[in-house]
Amino acid sequence: MLTFCLHLLVLLPTSSALLEGLYCGTENCYDVLGVTRESSRQEIVKAYRSLARIHHPDMHRTQEKKLEAEEMFKKIATAYEILRDEESRSDYDYMLDNPSAYYSHYYNYYRRRVSPKVDIRLVIIVTITLISVFQYYSGVSRYEEAITYFTTIQKYRNKAMEMAKDEINEKVNKKGKSKLSKSEQKSELEKIIRKVIEEKMDIQGAYAKPSIKNTLWVQLVLLPYTLGCYILWNIKWIWNFNILKKPYGDEEKLYLIRRYMSLGQNQFDAKEESEKQEYLEMELWIKENFLEWKQIQRKNRRSCWLIIPDTNPTEDT
């Protein structure tokens, strides 16, 4: 009797670990394939192929035998799917070793069944594509916003009308039967002004005309070339200015100023040319001059903050 109880205690963890509806149900997946927990993946594949040939429904003639074979074939296929994958096999072994962790077993099992196995390469490609599309159309939106803004400024409107006066006379100021109504004239005039501003206005910075070259996809494709140019540019800089001690040109001076200001290329390009010229005249590419100028700018800002106008003056009574 004692021996029987000891055998029962040994078998209890394994039998109680097998849950209906999970993995191979109340059967052990290793037993279904005739392998052990120490079997390698190659041994599991070999056992599956051998059993699949024997129990494939097409190998049997009578309907009864076909149904029996089909049921067995499903069990073999299920066991193989679980044991051939390292992660699902690890979860299955954990269930055998920890029969009391019911909720964990259900979670691990259904997490793998419900979660689709998506190729990470496809995820990366789709993500990069979506980012690139968003970048381009965001650029289009900002550019259109900038053009709309410039069409509202009178000096740009006047200049555009002066440049396109022949086209305005031809399309807007028509005579006779083809004469446009006032609303049509206004609409046509706005189209012409907008077109001229788009063609002639050189918008820089974040509101510049969008280009496919600035999207993430193109930047990644051109990365080796861009990296090579960057390395070559740095070598030339070190050779010309650190070793040969050549004087800086305006382009190099503006680069140093932009770097001291911690501005991106688009941000710096958006500044007025007169402002950049002022930086050059103050020799801000020299670090000491820039730090002094920066200190003055800070003091000026502080002064502006301290001057608070009295919006509600007390009236003399």
UniProtKB/TrEMBL annotation:
Transmembrane regions: 216-235
InterPro entries per the UniProt record, alphabetical: DnaJ_domain (IPR001623), DnaJ_domain_CS (IPR018253), DNAJC25-like (IPR044632), J_dom_sf (IPR036869)
Any matching Pfam family: DnaJ
Subcellular location: Membrane
GO cellular component: endoplasmic reticulum membrane
Signal peptide: 1-17
Entry keyword Signal: yes
GO biological process: protein folding
PANTHER family in the cross-refs: DNAJ HOMOLOG SUBFAMILY C MEMBER 25
Protein name as annotated: J domain-containing protein
Organism of derivation: Megaselia scalaris (Humpbacked fly)
